[in-house]
């Protein structure tokens, strides 16, 4: 009986295009080299995003010199921006009572500066709530009206004082004249930013820009806390020079204008001035009685207390405190 022959089926290998790579098996992309390639791609993507963001920011960067034409008052930011303030919170100069001498001195100094004449940096120091910052803003508004809008007010916050030299450099080339204003200026503890203020006031080689003046308010005459001076005295090689270094900061202000607590008559004059200005009508004896009672509950008499009483009285009588 004839033996059947076993047929062997031979599979032909698949055709492969010369130079083509074979498709890797599943899981082959999980090796160290593949992971390194993915990490490199991620880093490149992040770098490109950073570059794109920087280019966008540079394209949209605000031209501060163009911004200066949009308003009369600004707030300075340490990243180099000036933000226009369309409506400044201020009171009319005629409503500031009990500070006549300081008002006249600051107004004269500001007027001279606006005319391009020599003028001094000013430090307004003393009792709280007596109109130090209000006087600066009111003086600017009054003099700027006469100067045709060429006098600008720029506020720099106390915590941003280290950026003051940069602001000075920005303003140096401007056609406008500037009052740089810092409210409630003082230094505590190990704060060394006072050196930036001192450098800006001295101006270094170039000197303070002729078109810039600095007005600051403070509750302290010498700006620096007593413990700062004592610490410097105890650690310095020459204690006398250390104290002189600290105290000399205030000397950079040519004008020292002191504000003291007001008398009862001055306080009542402030209240009557506000009531007259805003059309608040009340019998004078009753007005005086309520105003004194209000100040007694606050434990002090000041322009701020007089204004707070005026707000309370106006609200109770249904009078809106709109400008008249």
TrEMBL record:
Pfam families for this protein: DUF815
SUPFAM superfamilies, per the entry: P-loop containing nucleoside triphosphate hydrolases
Residue span of region Disordered: 1-40
Biased composition (Basic residues): 1-10
PANTHER family: SLR0930 PROTEIN
Protein name: Uncharacterized protein
Organism, as annotated: Nitrobacter winogradskyi (strain ATCC 25391 / DSM 10237 / CIP 104748 / NCIMB 11846 / Nb-255)
